[in-house]
């Protein structure tokens, strides 16, 4: 007994397998209504930490208004880029996919770890030690750099949370523009640390040396990051993928071609 459900029941309800195949649970990335089914969290712990650090530095009166204005005005500019210059249309590659694969990805991970130590961990310890020792001059010199780094991490997370809105060139523009701005901040930091009056009374000599070394290291690191990685390699690769790739997962397609070859051999 089929209970009146099935192809043998007169006027019954047809099973899904008898008609058109059911629609996919998640639309393909190339369809006009596609939305990634991954879970993107805008305000993660990392995002909240960087946003809090940027807010504290911004309200501490140690960060110039020009740096705050740059971070705030960059957001509507990215929206304009995403809408007019580099829209994420159907058929464009997934912006969340890694740009570099293989050994280059390992080198990029090591580069990221080095950047975290030089640009985030050590300057944070320098600022905290300045709060303990009362070195307001050293804090004011390092604060713009720390603010720009916190704002960059938050902005990168913001663009990554909306992959259907911000394409790969827009996401690549974030570290490029922040690195250019940070070069000026690091140069000003180094200039203030090298002043003769920096080592006045009440300032430990170790803080003077640490401030100069940190400022010089950040200027060298971010200069190399901008002129030896972002501009000659990362940004061109992002533009190449945006304009030349067809949006198909090449890894999956390679596996599919291999499976087809195996099927032909078996037949």
Notable characteristics:
mainly alpha, DUF7733, 7 helices, 65% helix, elongated, 267 residues
Q: How would you portray this structure in words?
A:
This protein has 7 helices and no strands. The chain has 267 residues and is mostly helical. The chain is elongated and about 65 Å long. The two termini are 41 Å apart. Helix content is 65%, strand content 0%. It has a domain at 42-79 and 100-244. α2 (65-85) packs antiparallel against α5 (168-193), α3 (103-133) runs antiparallel to α6 (205-244) and α4 (136-160) runs antiparallel to α5 (168-193).
Report the principal-axis shape.
Answer: elongated
Going by helix content, strand content and strand pairing, the class is mainly alpha
Order of helices and strands: HHHHHHH
Contiguous helical run count = 7
Give the helix proportion (percent range): 55-70%
Distance linking N and C termini: 41 Å
Report mean pLDDT, rounded to a whole number. Answer: 80
Number of strands: 0
- Radius of gyration of CA atoms, rounded to a whole number: 26 Å
Major sheet:
none
Strand content: under 5%
Give unreliable regions as ranges: 1-17, 24-40, 248-258
């Amino acid at each position: 007994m089929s209970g009146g459900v099935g192809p043998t029941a007169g006027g019954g309800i047809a099973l899904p397998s008898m008609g058109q195949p059911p629609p996919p649970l998640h639309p393909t990335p190339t369809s006009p209504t596609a939305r990634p089914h991954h879970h993107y969290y805008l305000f993660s712990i990392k995002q909240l930490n960087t946003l809090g650090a940027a807010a504290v530095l911004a309200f501490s009166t140690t960060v110039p208004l020009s740096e705050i204005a740059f971070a705030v005005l960059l957001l509507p500019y990215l929206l304009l880029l995403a809408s007019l210059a580099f829209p994420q249309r159907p058929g464009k590659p997934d912006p969340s996919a890694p740009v570099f694969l293989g050994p280059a990805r390992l080198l990029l991970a090591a580069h990221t770890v080095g950047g975290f130590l030089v640009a985030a961990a050590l300057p944070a310890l320098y600022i905290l030690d300045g709060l303990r020792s009362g070195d307001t001059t050293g804090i004011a010199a390092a604060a713009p750099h720390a603010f720009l780094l916190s704002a960059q991490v938050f902005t990168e997370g913001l663009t990554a949370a909306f992959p259907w809105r911000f394409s790969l060139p827009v996401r690549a523009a974030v570290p490029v523009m922040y690195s250019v701005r940070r070069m000026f901040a690091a140069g000003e930091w180094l200039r203030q640390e090298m002043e003769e009056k920096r080592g006045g009374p009440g300032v430990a000599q170790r803080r003077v040396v640490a401030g100069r070394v940190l400022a010089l290291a950040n200027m060298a690191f971010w200069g190399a990051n901008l002129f030896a990685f972002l501009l000659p390699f990362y940004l061109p690769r992002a533009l190449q993928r945006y304009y030349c790739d067809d949006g198909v997962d090449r890894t999956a397609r390679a596996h599919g071609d291999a499976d087809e070859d195996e099927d032909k051999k078996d037949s």
